[in-house]
Write the structure tokens for this entry.
Amino acid sequence: MLRAEGLRHSFGSVRALDDVSFTVNPGQTLAVFGPNGAGKTTLLKVLAGLIQPQRGRAYVDGGRRAIGWIGHQPQLYGQLTVNENLRFWGLLYDAQPGPDLLARLGLEEHANRQVRTLSRGLVQRVAIARALVHDPRVLLLDEPFTGLDRIAAEALSRLLGQHAAAGRATVLVTHNVEEGTELATDVAFMRNGRFVHCAPRSGRGAQQVGEEYRHAIA
Amino acid sequence: MRLPDVLRHSWVLAAKDLRVEFRSRTAILSAVVFVILAFVVFNFGRDPTAVPNVALAPSILWVTFTLAAILALNRAFHLELENHALDGLLLAPIDRSSIYLGKLIANLVFVATFELIGVPLLMLFFNVRLLPYLAPLVLLIALATIGFVAVGTLFSAMTVRTRFAELLLPVLLLPFMILPLSWGVQATVRLLAGRPLSEIAGWLNMLAVYDIVFVGLALLLFPATVSE
């Protein structure tokens, strides 16, 4: 479903990706943990096709149409309403927003409000709805829990669980081990553009993964 | 990607830009105010006994329109940076040239809006008769506008991620505006002087060629300008 083969990419003298290879199969959720500057966002951008790697290649089954992205920034237009934003992104993917999408994220009553009038937590929920508007087969998540209120964080966890249960693939990058571990089927630790650990989670909890992470990146 | 899909996505993007702009009125309002103020300043700064209005009006018209267009073009891609929406557009399964075409259509509508307001104001302030030459003048303005907005939209995409975007855009764009601007001024001078239409046909043809060349080049270059 998603494959990275020997990805290498540098920005000037800074090596952001250094021979990164992995595969994510249907139903798998790979959580990539790493400190700031480890190359996590670059990895996601390469997988999404936003950056052409200098070496190696990334392959996503279904191409760009199959990818949903949730990042630091909501990628929404503040002057448009929630509905107008979702309709706009849906049209670009030749998809209609599902009737229950807003309800699943608790956004029904805000559907006709301009995004610029919403709180940060609500904007993040709309950003999640935007990423799911075309029912993507692969989700790429860049620090997805940052700025989310408790309700939105729970809704996102629930949605990611449903996404994996439906046989879809997810790659989640974050520097916070507590956030992503429980959702992951596989975990990877990233340092200076390299995967220093990549293995199935195998029942390890956030505390154990956290200790291994601190040891691996020390 | 098929041409109907490119055109459909372009229209979706243009409609979104127009909805956002006419809701916020940021660029269009500043451009309209600029046009009015420029005409007022030129009106008080001229000496009608030294240079007749009909000789002065074409230069004032084109200088005002080009500078106002730069104001509007500066805004074109800023909208996409506010919440990193540009990344979303680049990630969407659409041809990247449809992003350019969508922006071009929206920018043409913005510029046409203040040109539509500017032409009657020119008649009012400078007391020139434009009505007998309205059809060829509209064609002339349309052809020149397509040319410099096509180049401006491309440069707007190139400069938007730079620190000095507001300064860089006019510095890059003005040299490319010299040709359509000078052809537009010379053709307008002859139009207002009541010369036969055959005298401006050459400039209209050159403007049409300029449009085809630069829209084509911009469509080719745009995908590279927005790639990381």
DSSP finds seven helices and nine strands in chain A. The two ends of chain A are 32 Å apart (CA to CA).
